[in-house]
Fold these 3 entries.
Entry 1:
Amino acid sequence: MKTLDIIVIVSLLASILSPFLFFYFADRILITEIVPLDQKTIQKPNFGDNVEVYGPWINDRHSFLPDWNEIHPVRYIKNLKTGEEWGNKNYSGELMQGVHNPSRLRIFDENDPYRIARGTVVDVFDNPEDGDWHIHLLLDDDYQYLTKSRDRPFMYIPVFVLFGVPIGAFLISLFVWIYRKKLVRIKNLF
């Protein structure tokens, strides 16, 4: 097998596996946000930290984007490895105090809005639009119910579209590759 053949096969396999990996992790990732008001008392976690966060469990809706679930705003974080804690689990201020454009957020449970989530930090970045720190958590198994995909099974429809195209391309390329190899072998016979 030539190097080019190996590169083509690996590329095609990667295009097939990428959506599987994306949807596996997207199903388990929860967005959490620390608003500028709370950044004075809450330390930003680092990639790889195993943390517990506490704040209102909400659904974030945008005009042209699909909605998703979040803990927003985070009022308390605990690093589960070091035991360090920041913020306040007994927060008594207004529920959405410090949140940019709170009208887009739907609180799941008005009577008991706060939830705890535990997981590993897989992404941390500053949002320049509102100043929030976005912390994406790969949730522990017991907390996966907090993510969006549990609520709406039809969100998996794009999976079929994403898989159909790369799988079809792989099968066609494989067929063409095998066909060309057979042609070369047939030509070598004469």
Note: Residues 121 and 166 are 30 Å apart (CA to CA).
Entry 2:
Amino acid sequence: MVQFSMTTFTMEELEQQEEQLRFATFDHDTAIALGDTLYRTARERNLAVTIDVRAFGQILFHLAMAGTTPDNDQWVERKSNVVLRFHCASYRMGRRLAESGETIAEHSFVDPMTFSPFGGSFPVRLKSGGVIGAVTVSGLPQEEDHALVVSVLQDNPGLREGAFMQKKRF
């Protein structure tokens, strides 16, 4: 069962999440640790989701849990595209568009089959700079997808600070 509030996030809260949940450093090991933490959290909550972490133009972690379908992989792709193009959470972009009454095609002249502004993809943003990737979940209602990613980032600050990393082996 989902263990987070079903309260709708305000636009201010969404902006604060993006400002506060930045990474000190991010590499392939960070992506794997983040994906694994999302997997373990989803499993503990009995959720069926597809999890994807990408950065540097590569998919660094991808896992489809039992109960998901290939459609979830397509949602991951489209939601990630929103983050990577607009440098904000896909949920915030969707909320912004809903408030303005525009579609993503009208707003940005992009194909809605390639860009889906629905919750679940969150920017991998460095403290020292901009967006370098996206972490995405698909399988739940959009606000719950978003809340799952945010809760894992909030509850595991070591992921964002690089504290989880072990000494490198030669």
Note: Confidence is low (pLDDT under 50) at residues 1-6.
Entry 3:
Amino acid sequence: MPEQKPDEKWFLDTINIVCNFFCIKNYESNGYWDFWRKQNLIPGQDYETICGLLDSIKGKLDDAGGSEVNCASGQIMAYINDPNGRLCDWGIHRAECWGVRLPSDYTGDVPSQMSMVDVPESEYIVFEHGPLNYEQENCSVEEKIEKAMAEFDYEEAGCCLDTSPGRVMYFFYDPEQFFKYIRPVRKG
């Protein structure tokens, strides 16, 4: 396991909240900026429309009352394992998504341009870096987290990445709080 510094941590955790992930998906994009570049070309799926719609939804599980369009307001990037998705650098076919986590009993409408994904309870591994200066540290923090994920000894931890279709990897980003990936794993 890579050495952890005071502002870094990685650990296994059980996410005990069975939820729905309300999102838009892109099967071709490669990262946040490319995701929104491609989505902005699709009528009704542009940044302003989608983020405004997601902001209006009440009961988001991760909404900390923030005003920025990031995880502080409950909006997150996620990657759903999907055989029809783009093959990422980790060797996993996935769709990139932008959305919000909602309680499993959410009964609101789902606009036609969006999807509602049922996310069951599962084991996850968390790779997290603490607060960062966006302009000065964003790239180096991203490199640290990528390195930690690449060097992590899953076998030693008694697990492996869960690459089965439908599993969701979350990316929580709020420079004032953290830079965090939550990846699905299988024990054993």
Note: The chain is about 20% helix and 40% strand.
